[in-house]
Sequence to fold (246 residues):
Amino acid sequence: MARVALVTGGMGGLGEAICIKMAALGYQVVTTHSPGNTKAAEWLSSMEQQGFNFRAYPCDVADFDSAQACITKITEEIGPVDVLVNNAGITRDMTFKKMDKVNWDAVIRTNLDSVFNMTKPVCDGMADRGWGRIINISSVNGQKGAFGQTNYSAAKAGMHGFTKALALEVARKGVTVNTISPGYIGTKMVMAIPKEVLDSKIIPQIPMGRLGKPEEVAGLVAYLASDEAAFLTGANIAINGGQHMY
Ligand code: CAA
Ligand code: NAP
Fold:
């Protein structure tokens, strides 16, 4: 039977590429979308026209009860989750001077609390079955910090602390836990950056001189999910065109 891969935020730029890659490798791909996403059905049918049989469930990853209910439904209707990709995330960029509690909390809850909310209901099952993969999508900005992102950098750095601690706890149970830290990838999250900031401050810091492609990150997710990657755990893998060296 096909392994079940759950990709949160699979309708976004990176998430969609991850879903497509995992489906191509034979996984049963399940994704989540925000409960208020009115374009979910349209996305699913466009994917179906391209030959992908994805399943999608509404879930507010920032909310523990919503995450729990979503995993229960997936387990009942499809089967236990073998690969969890914690990909859903948001930015609310502003200098610390302008940062209020609402925008701090929104980013911490969606990017960091979500990792607890989604991992908690699947991790014990993976350990009991003796196989599992948890892949957390962090960011180069969690590794090096970024102007205007105290909230996001804190959440993304926190994800990797979680990765390392949980990796230790489940290392002997056939479950690996890893972080991927992408640099700037050409999705709508990056397109929201003012063009002059992107051109004058960010692209010059990328030795390859270009944005990454979602497919390049998806390939790394696929490797971490594979049986070949069984000895790789607790790592934070940078994929950023060399930006981490700046
Ligand atoms: N580095 C250094 N200085 C910067 C800067 C940067 N990255 N971004 C802005 N500044 C400077 C500006 O040049 C400006 O300087 P002066 O006052 O000397 O002219 C000063 O900061 C204030 O900038 P703004 O007028 O733009 O201030 P603002 O309050 O309107 O906006 C901001 C500030 C929200 C941080 C805006 O500049 C911005 O959106 N920056 C981009 C932030 C960013 O890189 N986000 C990444 C999003 S993608 C992502 O997060 C994915 C991922 O994981 C990689
Ligand atoms: P994106 O296109 O904006 O997609 C983000 C996804 O997250 C959307 O599908 C969105 O679903 C989902 N989401 C947001 N809040 C949610 C919530 N509360 N509950 C459920 N789903 C929620 O962004 P992206 O560029 O693909 O980013 C994906 C991940 O990669 C994020 O964690 C991001 O921080 C990380 N990352 C991105 C880059 C980059 O350069 N793009 C670099 C490094 C790391 P709905 O549309 O249904 O709300």
Notes: The radius of gyration is 17 Å. The mean pLDDT is 97.
